[in-house]
Amino acid sequence: MALESKFGTGHPWIVALWSLAVLAFERFFVICRPLGNVRLRGKHTALGLLFVWTYSFIWTIPPVLGWSSYTTSKIGTTCEPNWYSGDYLNHSYIITFFFTCFILPLTIIIISYGKLIRKLRKVCGVGGVMMTALLKYHSGLPVLGHSLYSLYPCQH
Q1: Model confidence over 39-91: pLDDT tens digits?
Q2: Are strands 70-72 and 79-81 parallel, antiparallel or unpaired?
Q3: The domain 3-115 is classified under which CATH number: 2.30.300.10, 3.40.50.970, 1.20.1070.10, 1.10.540.10?
Q4: Strand runs labelled E in the chain
Q5: Is 59 left (phi over 0), alpha (psi -120 to 50) or beta?
Q6: What contacts 154, CB < 8 A, 6 or more positions away?
Q7: Checking phi first, is residue 76 left (phi over 0); if not, alpha (psi -120 to 50) or beta?
Q8: Which PROSITE patterns does the UniProt record give (predicted)?
């Protein structure tokens, strides 16, 4: 199997999920301003991208180096971590991989958007029009913006 194909299954979804986590944190940071008047700049974006891609490579390399292993998928089209082995090294990698590449970014997303929604609810209490504007402006996906607005409508 070519080394490139071994990174084909895990790497893209790690990048995707961590990119969503970084975006959620960025939105929380921009709207809630936990550090006061500190603004995010282009260098912060570059650092976020560097983090996401480096983190993904770090978690797809261990099977190549001997912690767990890659095997051909059941349908034979791609390689994947060896999910089905009873070996301790495979189990320890899969469990660690699950927490660091799924649970951790998901937790960041939930906490960031939870704090963001709580902040917007406070703003809604002061001036309902501001929440509507913030939800529409800061939503990367129109569906998400409308969903958040329908869950937490402002009373004018």
Answers
A1: 777 888 889 899 999 999 998 888 888 888 888 878 877 778 888 888 888 88
A2: antiparallel
A3: 1.20.1070.10
A4: 70-72, 79-81
A5: alpha
A6: 124, 128, 129, 131, 132
A7: left
A8: G_PROTEIN_RECEP_F1_1 (PS00237), G_PROTEIN_RECEP_F1_2 (PS50262)
